């Protein structure tokens, strides 16, 4: 059964203030009806197992009868994974379409509510949550400044020592150039067009802290498409459509480097673990476990 949207909460719909926010929300609303994404751009089974293990560890460490958790976004694999008995879950997303079309119809914890709200302005009291969990959230905020805002808000709502678990979309320390990526494509080395699309966006972004406009990635794809031997039969229809959906899109994604991810954790969190999964291009999908520092900078227990 679908949980009632916003039930039990007040002030959940925050106005979209900036042009960048408006473009981002429009993109997610347009994508929601035909959401077709496969691993590693959505969590693979080993990622879900990692999330389950960390949530169970958090519940034991907090010693709480009822785990209070926030899910940033509506990732079905996380929503329907195994949660500790009695978990109270709030799933937050600012796109009505994502809540309506991507959120699973069943399988989430019994005590679940969904909120249409901005991750940077969560409708919760300070220090009221045991756990925050998300997948690829930094990328969707479009800039390092947006990622820092998110971390500040997570640090606000978490209890001292509360846990923050996320998988990040991360560019390599020395990413290939756009030309080198298209050389891989030309020689037939690319089997996953969704993953190539992400790597291309990372290459176009480069060192910019302001991310990359998705429409720019599409234009570069079009500029090169005529000059490479594209065997479209190697890619699924969904992957080809996903690439085409970036045409003309003003929304931006940001892909922090590992060094930038580590810097984002300071000063509000202790970075407890940063590990790579075992699948293709693992360096682009590190899994991070952080704990909220105590007021005044003390280490969590």
Largest sheet report: 7 strands, mixed
Low-confidence stretches: 4-13, 296-301
Number of helices: 11
Write down the CATH class of the largest domain: Alpha Beta
Strand order of the largest sheet: 3-2-1-4-5-9-8
State the distance separating the first and last CA atoms: 37 Å
Label the structural class. alpha/beta
DSSP strand tally = 9
Give helix and strand order, one letter per element, not per position. Answer: HHEHEHEEHHEHHEHHEHEE
Keywords:
301 residues, alpha/beta, Rossmann fold, 2 domains, 7-stranded mixed β-sheet, two-stranded antiparallel sheet, 17% strand, disordered C terminus
Report what the structure shows:
By secondary structure, the chain is of the alpha/beta class. It has two domains: 19-170 and 256-292, Rossmann fold; 178-251, no CATH class. The chain contains eleven helices and nine strands. It has helices at 19-32, 45-62, 76-79, 96-101, 137-141, 144-157, 178-186, 193-205, 214-225, 237-244, 258-265; strands at 68-72, 88-93, 111-116, 129-135, 158-167, 212-213, 252-253, 269-275, 287-292. A seven-stranded mixed β-sheet has the order 3-2-1-4-5-9-8. The protein is globular.
């Amino acid at each position: 059964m679908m949980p009632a949207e916003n039930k039990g909460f007040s002030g959940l719909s925050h106005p979209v203030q900036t042009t960048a926010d408006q473009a981002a929300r429009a993109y997610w609303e347009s994508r929601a009806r035909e959401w077709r994404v496969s691993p590693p751009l959505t969590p693979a089974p080993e990622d879900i197992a990692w999330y389950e293990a960390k949530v169970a560890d958090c519940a034991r460490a907090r010693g709480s009868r009822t785990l209070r958790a926030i899910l940033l976004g509506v990732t079905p694999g996380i929503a329907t994974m195994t949660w500790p008995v009695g978990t109270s879950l709030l799933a937050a997303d600012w796109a009505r379409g994502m809540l309506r079309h991507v959120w699973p119809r069943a399988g989430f914890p019994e005590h679940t509510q969904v909120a249409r709200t901005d991750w940077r302005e969560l409708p919760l009291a300070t220090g009221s949550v045991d756990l925050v969990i998300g997948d690829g959230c930094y990328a969707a905020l479009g800039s390092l400044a947006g990622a820092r805002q998110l971390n500040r808000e997570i640090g606000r709502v978490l209890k001292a020592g509360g846990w923050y678990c996320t998988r990040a979309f991360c560019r390599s320390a020395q990413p290939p150039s756009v030309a080198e990526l298209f050389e891989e494509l030309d020689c037939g080395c690319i089997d996953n067009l969704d993953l190539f699309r992400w790597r291309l966006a990372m290459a176009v972004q480069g060192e910019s802290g302001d991310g990359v406009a998705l429409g720019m990635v599409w234009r570069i794809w079009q500029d090169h498409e005529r000059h490479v031997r594209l065997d479209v039969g190697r890619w699924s229809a969904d992957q080809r459509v996903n690439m085409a959906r970036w045409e003309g899109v003003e929304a931006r994604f940001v892909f922090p480097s590992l060094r930038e991810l580590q810097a984002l954790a300071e000063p509000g969190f202790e970075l407890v673990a940063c590990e790579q999964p075992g699948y293709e291009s693992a360096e682009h999908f590190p899994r991070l476990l952080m704990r909220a520092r105590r007021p005044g900078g003390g280490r969590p227990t």
